[in-house]
Design a protein that fits this description.
The structure holds two protein chains of two kinds. Chain A has no helices and ten strands. By secondary structure, chain A is mainly beta. Chain B contains no helices and eleven strands. In chain B, the strands form two sheets. In chain B, strands 2, 4, 5, 6, 9, 10 and 11 form a seven-stranded mixed sheet that branches. In chain B, strand 5 and strand 6 form a beta hairpin. The chains are: A mainly beta, B mainly beta. At the A-B interface, strand 5 of A face strand 5 and strand 10 of B.
Amino acid sequence: QKEVEQNSGPLSVPEGAIASLNCTYSDRGSQSFFWYRQYSGKSPELIMFIYSNGDKEDGRFTAQLNKASQYVSLLIRDSQPSDSATYLCAPRGGGSQGNLIFGKGTKLSVKP
Amino acid sequence: DGGITQSPKYLFRKEGQNVTLSCEQNLNHDAMYWYRQDPGQGLRLIYYSQIVNDFQKGDIAEGYSVSREKKESFPLTVTSAQKNPTAFYLCASSMGRLGVQETQYFGPGTRLLVL
C-alpha cells in the first residue's frame, strides 16, 4: 500500500513568518513530487513540483526533496493571509502508470 | 480561454438513480482523470484514461463508470451501486507523456449530494 503522510494541522503562523509543510512517502519508486494548494470548497491548484534531490525555489515557495529519507517539504516565506489553505503533497508513484498519490493535506492558517 | 470545465457545479442524486458528471478540456491533453474527495481526506483515484477509447480503474472504481469517446471529454457516471456517493468530484488532465514533469491540472469540481 503506497502511503503519503502529512501533518493535518492546522499549522498556524503569523503573517510574514516562514511556514514549513512536511510530507513523507512510502513508495521508493516515486521520482517526482507535486505540491498543490486547495482553498476551502475549491479545486487543487499546482504550486510547484520537484524531482531532483535538494532545493527548488519559485518566488516565495521552496520545495525540498530528500529521496533517501523519503521526505519532501514546502517552505513558504513571508507568509500572507492569502496563503491560508490546505496544502496537498502528491508523489508520482513508481511503475508504468505513475499515478499521483495524494496525502490528506496540511491546513495552514496565516494570522494577520 | 483554455482549461478544464466540469458541470454541473452541484448535483443531487435520488436513491437508485444514476447520474453523470461532465468533464471537458481544451488543453489538447491526452490523459484525463477522475478523483473523489471526502471531507478531511486526500484525493482518491476513481478512473483514468491515457488515450481515447481506453481507460483503467483506479483505487475506488466500484460503483462508477466512464467513457472516453473523444479526446476532450471524459464523463463519469455514478451508478446506483455506489452506496455512499456524497463527495466532491474532481476531474484532471495532463499531457500524458509520463515524464517526471508530467503535471495534472484540475477542473473546478462537482459536489454530489444525495437527497
